[in-house]
Each structure stands twice: as structure tokens, then as C-alpha cells.
Design goal:
The chain is of the alpha/beta class. Helices cover 39% and strands 17% of the residues. The structure holds thiamine diphosphate (TPP) and magnesium ion (MG). Magnesium ion binds at residues 446-448, 472, 474, 476-478.
Length: 554
């Protein structure tokens, strides 16, 4: 049966399982919007296309399914870029659909033309390095193959964003709907590892103080359970990257918490002082996790790295054993190998001694900071108590959560880890809540970041999407202030600013406002506020001089 290309695109979205699309219309993409009108897909009108791309990213991150955003040609497409770049860095399957001027006016200076002809800006070139696949769809005869390629890129082994830019006249052409049959939906392959599990099992057997460094790969491969079982069976402590926070429930005896420059340093100290074998499971060892690639973390230790992505192996350190494979199946095999051969659990003495030592009273300077951060610490404690499992927490600040937020072994903490763009948490949380409709949702961010994306709170209001926005009100870009304090002789420039009145802002948005200045305010917040089904703007006050004292690389 002949249908329009716009219809075909909408049916394609449906086949991908898309139930929500985030975006803003423009003349060049209206034919597709018109077909969305008749479909079951819910469209969410955003305030800025960057928000649409972040929302799709949030949806994909929580659902582990493809998500979609849509924008018009020219500025609509360019506004998507930061959000799509973030999806690329996070390897999220986000499909971006954009319009384009009609092919017959390419190069003639059409309004918002962005096909790269005759000096026009070139969407394809702009998106080339931040997508797994991008296509300006100028004809219909190859449409089946284009959609198939898009599908492989979205759902393949290394997923990532895809851009389909469709000129206005092409959207209105007709095609046979049999084109959809050319699309293959890849099944997730469990890749078996190439190296026998026994080699790793022997290294673990020989080690005195092995430590697992769990990364996001553990979450991607569904390895939480086997990692936790493994750790408990053999008394092997686990530290995680920020993105893998909670792979083993934090606060439990074998959890060393996060490894990273902005964490409390507990895991770092244990690794440096005691570990003789590090088992990296799907962990990238980036600048933050590795303390700027601090050699002390690795020297004198055996290092094993397991990753399903061969390009990660040996990328920033030299492993003694590198295994390219699925983390879950590999660890299941190692567990079986060690059980069959009856390995006794490792002694916990070192871990106990370490815990004892780190319980010593803090240095005076740290004490002062703890006091200043008391409200934030208390907020995270109450949050963990109140919602131990099902809340979704999108966090652009990340510094405080690393030390103060104990994440249970459920996947509900989403740090701003992609390209670390300010203005991410609110839209990402909105996107996530569109999928996880029963999960209380939090966006935690600074006042600088808030002002980059706060208008998306009106998107939540317009679409009735419950959300808690927690803004840390310190009247400064504190990372910048911290760096200028530590590295630039306190020559402060362009870090401090005056905030709007958050109470009035909330009132004008029509959402509830809570100002937290004391522990009693926090008690009231958790006792009185509807944190599950309402939209709330929660403001936590912090002295602008009280920035965390970790040392940035630059
Ligand atoms: C889009 C973007 N621009 C600039 C930066 C650089 N940057 C990183 S942290 C930061 C300050 C953040 O201030 P705020 O959101 O108020 O959080 P605070 O640290 O004060 O809690 C800036 C400007 C960035 N990460 N992203
Ligand atoms: Mg701030």
C-alpha cells in the first residue's frame, strides 16, 4: 500500500517502540508532525530543542530503549547538537528527526536551509562526529536501507544517536509501506569472551586483596547480580565509577563507594594502600575516576580488564589480562570456576582495619566544610531513606552525591556523565519520567545550570509530568570559583551572580516552592511535600565560599 514518507517515518517510530517524541515544530517538519497527530505516539513540546535531545537521552538512559526527538531545519537542528553530543558520549540510542528545505531549492538560499549546498550550513557535517549514523534523505528509493542502517546504529552492539534529515518535499512523497519490511531488528548478542575464565579465576585465587572496579558496563550487561554475588561469596570489595554508583549497594560492608576525584577518597586510599589485584569490569578509567590517571592506583598491582568494547581494552592503562566479552557471562563463568574448585573467601582484616582508620576524626578544615554542606548531606540522607529504590535521581552537580548519597543496588542514580553539559538534569529527568511513570523523579543542579534549562519546568507543567527540581542556591558557579580560589590567586571573574527570586519564579510557573535553610526545613519538605506526583522547586541554600576542596586538574 502506498503511504506518505511522513507516515512511513511515524510507523517506523512505532516499530522502534517509541511512545513519546520530544521536540518543537517548524514549517519544514510539519508533514511529519501532521502524521504524529493521528498516531499513538505522544508528542512533548519543549522550550528549546536542546531540551528535546536531553529528554530523549533521559528516556533512553532509564528505559534502555530507543528514544526520539524532532526539530525543524537550520536552527532547530543546530539547537539539538549539545543534547545529541551528550547521547553520543553516553552511547544512548537517540533518534533525531529533522526537517530540511525541499531538494529543488537546495543551494538557492532557502529559509533555514541547512543541506550544505551553495554556502548553506550543513546539518550532515555538523552531526557527523556526534552520531553513529546520519543521512540527508534526498530520495525514496533507498529509504528501506536507510531506515535499516539507522536501526542497526540505534540497536547495535555499540548504540548511539542517529540523525535522519528529511527534506520537506520528500516528506510528502509516497512510498510502498513494504519498505518497512527491509528493517531488521538486531537481537542483543551475548558475546562470549575469547579468553578462558580460568585465567582470571587463577589471578583472583592468587591475590590477597583483590578489588573489583565496576563501571557502567556492569549495568549495561545486566551484571549487577553476579557482581554482588561474587563480591559476597569471596569477600571482594567493590568500588565503582560515578556512572556505576550502586552496582553493589552503597553502605553495605563490601562497598568501597565511588572511585573518583570528587568522592570522599575512601576507595582511593584502600586501593593505594592494600589492593594487589584490580578487576576492571566495564569501567573506562576516565579523568575523574582515575584521579587524573594517578599511577599510584595501578603500580605494583595485577590489573585485569573486561569490556565488551575492544577499543576500551588497554586504552589508558596496560592490563595484565584483557578480556573482550560480555561482563555478565564472563563473571558467571569465573564464579563457576572458583566454586567448582572451592576457593575460600578472602580475609576481611584489611578492609576492617581500613574502615577503622577512616573513622578517625576529620581534619579541622574538613570539619568546617562538613558543617557548610550539612544541609545537602542531610538532604541526600533523607532522600535515600524515603526512596530507597524507585526514585530516579538526575544529578548535574555530582560532587555532593559522590560523598553523601548512598545508592542502593537499583539503577536509579544518573549523574551528568556524558559531555558534562550544564542544563541537562531538568530535561533529562522529564524524559525519564515519561517512561518511568511511577517513579518519583529528581533533577539536582546548581543555580548556574538551572538558569540554562529552567524553562523546561514549564514543559513539565504543560504536560503534567511530575518532577522535583532541587537547585543548590549559592549565587555562584562554584567549580569556577573553586578553581579561581585554588589556581588563580582568588582573582574571581565571572563566577558570582544574583539569582531570581525562586519563590516568585515557582509561583509564576504554578509549581510548589520549598526553601531549605535549616534541618527543620528539610524535615518539613520530606513530611509535607508531594514528592511523587507534583512539580516542586526545592531551593537549598549554600554559602558561596563553601565549595568542595578537591583539586581539579586545571
Ligand atoms: C554548557 C556548559 N558550560 C560551561 C560549563 C563549565 N562549568 C562546569 S561547572 C560550572 C559551574 C556550575 O555552576 P552551578 O550550576 O551554579 O553549580 P555549583 O557548582 O555552583 O553548584 C561551569 C560553568 C559546563 N560544564 N557546561
Ligand atoms: Mg551555583
Amino acid at each position: 500500500m502506498n503511504i506518505s514518507v511522513s507516515d512511513l517515518i511515524v510507523r517506523y517510530l512505532e516499530r522502534l517502540g517509541i511512545d513519546t517524541i520530544f521536540g518543537m515544530p517548524g514549517a519544514h517538519v510539519l508533514p511529519i508532525y501532521d502524521r504524529l497527530h493521528d498516531s499513538q505516539i505522544k508528542s512533548v513540546l519543549v522550550k528549546h530543542e536542546q531540551g528535546a535531545a536531553f529528554m530523549a537521552g533521559g528516556y533512553a538512559r532509564v528505559s534502555h530503549r530507543p528514544a526520539a526527538c524532532i526539530a525543524t531545519a537550520g536552527p532547530g537542528a543546530t539547537n539539538l547538537i549539545t543534547g545529541i553530543a551528550n547521547a553520543y558520549a553516553e552511547r544512548l540510542p537517540v533518534l533525531a528527526i529533522t526537517g530540511e528545505t525541499s531538494t529543488y531549492i537546495f543551494g538557492k538560499g532557502g529559509l533555514q536551509e541547512s543541506a550544505g549546498e551553495g554556502g548553506a550550513i550543513d546539518q550532515g557535517a555538523l552531526f557527523a562526529s556526534i552520531t553513529r549514523y546520519h543521512k540527508l534523505v534526498e530520495r525514496t528509493d533507498y529509504l528501506g536501507q536507510v531506515l535499516n542502517q539507522a536501526t542497526q546504529a540505534l540497536l547495535g552492539r555499540e548504540p548511539g544517536p542517529v540523525l535522519l534529515s528529511i527534506p520537506y518535499n520528500v516528506q510528502k512523497e509516497t512510498v510502498d509501506d513494504g519498505v518497512l519490511d527491509q528493517i531488521h531488528f538486531p537481537h542483543k548478542l551475548a558475546i562470549r569472551h575469547a579468553t578462558p575464565a580460568s585465567e582470571l579465576a587463577e589471578l583472583i585465587r592468587a591475590a590477597d586483596a583483590p578489588v573489583i572496579v565496576a563501571g557502567y558496563g556492569c549495568i549495561q550487561s545486566g551484571a549487577r547480580e553476579v557482581v554482588a554475588t561474587f563480591a559476597e561469596r569471596f569477600n571482594i570489595p567493590v568500588t565503582t565509577s560515578l556512572k556505576a554508583k550502586g552496582v553493589v549497594a552503597e553502605g553495605t560492608p563490601l562497598s568501597l563507594g565511588c572511585l573518583g576525584v570528587t568522592s570522599n577518597g575512601d576507595a582511593y586510599r584502600y586501593l593505594v594502600a592494600h589492593a594487589d589485584l584490580l578487576v576492571f569490569l566495564g569501567a573506562g578509567f576516565n579523568e575523574r575516576t582515575s584521579y587524573v590517571w594517578d599511577a599510584k592506583l595501578l603500580t605494583g598491582k595485577k590489573v585485569v580488564q573486561i569490556d565488551r568494547d575492544p577499543t576500551q581494552l588497554g586504552r589508558v592503562f596496560q592490563p595484565d589480562l584483557a578480556i573482550c566479552g560480555d561482563i555478565r557471562t564472563t563473571m558467571e563463568d569465573v564464579l563457576a570456576a572458583l566454586e567448582t574448585n572451592a576457593m575460600p573467601p578472602k580475609a576481611l582484616d584489611r578492609l576492617d582495619l581500613h574502615r577503622e582508620a577512616t573513622r578517625q576524626p576529620a581534619e579541622p578544615a574538613q570539619d568546617e566544610q562538613q558543617e557548610a554542606f550539612r544541609l545537602i548531606r542531610l538532604f541526600f540522607e533523607l532522600l535515600a531513606q524515603r526512596f530507597p529504590h524507585n526514585a530516579l535521581v538526575f544529578d548535574d552537580n555530582i560532587v555532593f552525591a559522590q560523598s553523601y548519597f548512598d545508592v542502593s543496588d537499583h539503577n536509579h542514580y544518573f549523574p551528568n556523565s556524558g559531555i558534562s553539559s550544564l542544563g541537562h538534569a531538568i530535561p533529562a529527568a522529564i524524559g525519564a519520567r515519561c517512561f518511568a511513570k511511577d517513579s518519583p523523579t529528581f533533577a539536582i543542579l546548581g543555580d548556574g545550570g538551572f538558569q540554562m534549562c529552567c524553562m523546561e519546568m514549564m514543559t513539565a507543567v504543560n504536560h503534567g509530568i511530575p518532577l522535583n527540581v532541587v537547585v543548590i542556591n549559592n549565587g555562584t558557579l562554584s567549580l569556577i570559583r573553586k578553581n579561581q580560589f585554588q589556581l588563580y590567586g582568588e582573582r574571581y571573574i565571572d563566577c558570582d551572580f544574583t539569582n531570581p527570586d525562586f519563590a516568585l519564579l515557582a509561583q509564576s510557573f504554578g509549581v510548589a516552592h520549598y526553601r531549605v535553610e535549616s534541618a527543620a526545613d528539610l524535615d518539613r519538605l520530606f513530611a509535607e511535600a508531594d514528592l511523587s506526583e507534583s512539580i516542586n522547586l526545592i531551593e537549598i541554600l549554600l554559602d558561596k565560599h563553601a565549595f568542595p576542596r578537591y583539586l581539579s586538574a586545571r
